[in-house]
Design goal:
Blueprint lengths: L1 H40 L12 E4 L3 E5 L6 E11 L4 H7 L1 H13 L3 H5 L4 H18 L8 E9 L1
Antiparallel strand pairs: 1-3, 2-3, 3-4
Membrane topology: Single-pass membrane protein
Subcellular location: Cell inner membrane; Cell membrane
Keywords: Cell inner membrane, Cell membrane, Cell projection, Chemotaxis, Cilium, Flagellar rotation, Flagellum, Membrane, Signal, Transmembrane, Transmembrane helix
Length: 155
């Protein structure tokens, strides 16, 4: 009888071990599946892509520049850099304003000021400030990041 009891205890222990390991595996499997489903269905906030900068060339300018003996002429081609995808429309609408602003800015400069290559960065910065101001004053988007002079010829 003692042998039968010890075998019965061994069988019961083996069954309990088998049941507990099966239950444990089932629990871990279900929890990991829940975790995977939760991970799959929880939405992370979508990050909007940063707009790519675009360059918008303006029509060339021919500007009269005062000189000591006689007037000079400057041919200026420029482009505007912007991250605003709607900037092309704004530039078409405000073309006359921007051209007038650039004409005024450059007509106040002397031949010597403009003929110095060291002045390009400061002229571009000044043009940027003036363009942003004139667009803002006229309630237009002023999302210009940079003004680039692509060609500048002074005679």
């Amino acid at each position: 009888m003692a042998i039968a009891k010890s075998q019965l205890v061994k069988i019961i222990v083996a069954v309990l071990v088998l049941i507990s390991s099966t239950a444990g595996a089932f629990w871990v499997g279900n929890n990991s599946a829940d975790w995977k489903l939760t991970e799959m269905f929880t939405s992370e906030p979508e990050v909007e892509p940063v707009p790519v900068a675009k360059y918008y060339p303006l029509e060339k300018f021919v500007i009269s520049i005062p000189g000591d003996k006689y007037p000079h002429y400057m041919l200026l081609e420029m482009s505007l850099k912007s991250h605003n995808p709607n900037m092309q429309t704004v530039l078409v609408e405000s073309d006359a304003l921007l051209r007038n602003t650039m004409m005024k800015m450059f007509s106040r400069k002397t031949f010597i000021e403009l003929n110095s290559l060291d002045q390009l960065d400061s002229l571009q910065a000044e043009a940027l400030i003036l363009m942003i101001k004139v667009l803002s004053d006229n309630q237009l988007p002023s999302d210009i990041d940079e003004v680039l002079f692509t060609r500048m010829v002074i005679q």
